Amino acid sequence: MIHERLRLGIISALTASPVLSFTDLKKLLKTTDGNLATHLRKLEEAGYLRVAKRFEARKPVTDYALTARGRRALGEHLDQIEQLLGPARR
To answer: What do you get for the CA distance between the two ends of the chain, in Å?
Structure first.
């Protein structure tokens, strides 16, 4: 699920910063609204993200945060990469 470049970028960004808005993620990852929305939805459906909607200066803001399940998924993904790269590093 998170091996795709943009999804891994989303998960990584949310590891470094506990909450990011859609706009923050879009700027950080340099992607389009539609592309980002598609990948965020897939991560949310997988239970990796928590979504909160609020208003700021009368404008809607959508915030994203990593769930415990999302953190575990990232850890498992990194473990798999380490297993693949381990023999090559020796």
So the answer is: 29
C-beta separation of 87 from 68 below 8 A:
no
Query: Would you say how long the chain is, in residues?
Result: 90
The one-letter amino acid at 56: E
Element (H, E) at 90: none
Three-class SS of 23-89:
HHHHHHHCCCHHHHHHHHHHHHHCCCEEEEEEEECCEEEEEEEECHHHHHHHHHHHHHHHHHHHHHH
In eight-state DSSP terms, residue 21 is E
Spatial neighbors of 55 by CB under 8 A, at least 6 apart, are 61
pLDDT tens per residue across span 36-80: 999 999 999 999 999 999 999 999 999 999 999 999 999 999 998
